[in-house]
Design a protein that fits this description.
single chain; 2 strands; mainly alpha; 226 residues
């Protein structure tokens, strides 16, 4: 509902700002998003494929065997710098700039999403959060969603929710549906939740814990709760 409408506009603004597509992504019309749009296609492209390869790009657009996009692959936008490392598909996973911007836009505020620089360490974001908090000192500020529901840390299911919302915002589908062609959003959401909640072993659990701590620092770190 509201989150989908909000991100429909905001995601177009972020894509236009970062990739400067020509023509730009229309904030109102979704028909020219998805894989027909070069910038949206790059972000939606399965991480193990190279969108810059003309054969890959044509194969995805024509739904050729070997290039059919399903929920079994993570799209490029979930990765730091929108690129996965072939030898380590977990490195940079769920650190994509647009993903973090969307999370902050939904759970804190759209203006806080502007602080995201996508450098992967979260330091500048934390400093911006603190500056913003200080600037509102003594003022009555409208509470954001996270404050209303007393959400003080990032959760696996909230991240999965935003990943699905961003994926939908980048797509050309105009109304929400659980299955988009060969892509099943319900299965995709469950895959993300399982990544966080059912890691295979202690070392994987430590990596997940560090990732969730990174998310919480980037989104919620501030000197006071108001």
């Amino acid at each position: 509902g509201d989150d989908t409408s909000k991100l429909k506009v905001l995601v177009s603004e972020w894509v236009n700002h970062e990739f400067k597509p020509n023509p730009p992504v229309d904030p109102d019309d979704k028909h020219l998003r998805g894989f027909t749009n070069d910038a949206c296609g790059r972000l939606l492209c399965p991480s193990e494929l190279d969108w810059n390869n003309p054969t890959v790009k044509a194969g995805i657009r024509d739904r050729v065997d070997g290039h059919i996009v399903t929920d079994l692959s993570f799209p490029a936008f979930v990765y730091e710098k929108y690129t996965a490392k072939p030898d380590n598909l977990e490195e940079g996973l769920f650190k994509g700039k647009i993903l973090l911007q969307a999370y902050k836009a939904v759970f804190t505020s759209p203006s806080s999403a502007k602080d995201v620089d996508g450098n992967g360490d979260g330091v500048d974001i934390i400093q911006n959060n603190r500056r913003a908090r200080k600037s509102f000192n003594g003022l009555k500020v409208k509470k954001h969603v996270a404050q209303i529901i007393r959400m003080e840390k990032a959760s696996p299911r909230s991240i999965a929710y935003i990943v699905c919302q961003v994926r939908f915002a980048l797509s050309s589908v105009t109304s929400w549906r659980s299955v988009d062609g060969d892509f099943d959003y319900v299965q995709f959401w469950q895959t993300i939740v399982d990544f966080f909640e059912r890691p295979p072993g202690r070392e994987a659990q430590r990596r997940v814990d560090r990732l969730l701590e990174w998310w919480t620092r980037c989104v919620f770190d501030c000197p006071s709760k108001s």
